[in-house]
Amino acid sequence: MKVTHVHKDYQHIGPQLWDAIDNFETMGAYVTKGERNVIKKVEIKGEVYNIKKFKTPNAVQRLVYRYLRKSKAKRSFQYAKILTEKGINTPLPVGYVEVFVGGLKDSYYISKHVDYDFDFRVLNHNPNWPNRAEVLRQMAAFTFQLHEKEINFLDHSPGNTLINDMGDGTYDFYLIDLNRMRFEPMDFHKRMHNFRRLWLSKTMINIMAKEYARLYGKPEKETHALMTKYSRAFQKKVNSKKIRRRRRDSR
Predict the structure, then answer these.
(1) What tens digit of pLDDT does each residue of 62-84 get?
(2) Which domains are seen in the chain, by residue range?
(3) CA-CA distance, 236 to 225, in Å (whole number)?
(4) What is the pTM for the complete model shown?
(5) What pLDDT is stored for residue 167 in this prediction?
(6) Residue 47: which H helix or E strand, with range?
(7) Which residues have CB under 8 Å from 106's CB, separation 6+?
(8) What gap in Å lies between CA 159 and CA 171, rounded to an integer?
(9) 206 and 214 in contact (C-beta within 8 Å)?
(10) What average pLDDT does this structure show over 42-63?
(11) Helices within 13-58 (DSSP H only)
(12) What's the CA gap between 57 and 68, in Å, rounded?
């Protein structure tokens, strides 16, 4: 059984979208070809769309996604709609497809393709990135807006924010990889905890904590301390896992 859903604004290209998914292996060009998920872009009637194929779930997950939980594709589509309604940039949601063979076999999420200048990762790796401090301040303000709008983006990590330089000293931020998200009130601890996956250096925290504290009306020292606490705890946890994995692999 196949479940297909397309946004009302794109129903006129439904047949072309379903054809692209039926021929996913041979149509379009790769955007990302990872071990878990694959993204390809296709052109339909002069517009470019991204199709994300999620990793085929294991036997237990297939049943969970069939009966207990929405698929990642469906969640991505629904969360993207909520973000756009709340005024948060994300590639426009177009549709999704779920293929069931007993449980969920495959799922696909379709969105409009977005050209972007860079993602947040370059700020982690390149301290000399042009206008880096200002981008970090605006990223802190963007995250503040997420929190004010009760958006807890659980995968708020460097690769999941695309950035466009608008050429006038301002930057537009787009969220991607949306299937892990909660919509809930964000207290101060939740807000600072949400920064942990961005892998912030001391310099980055100095800049972002100051801007966030100004916007939220909290003392800079308190904001800096809590952002640092959660960031360092997360980094320590990830690094410890890597060390244990290397030790296992070397045996």
Answers:
(1) 999 998 999 999 999 999 999 99
(2) 2-112 (3.30.200), 118-245 (1.10.510)
(3) 16
(4) 0.93
(5) 96
(6) strand 47-53
(7) 53, 54, 56, 97, 98, 99
(8) 16
(9) no
(10) 95
(11) 14-22
(12) 14
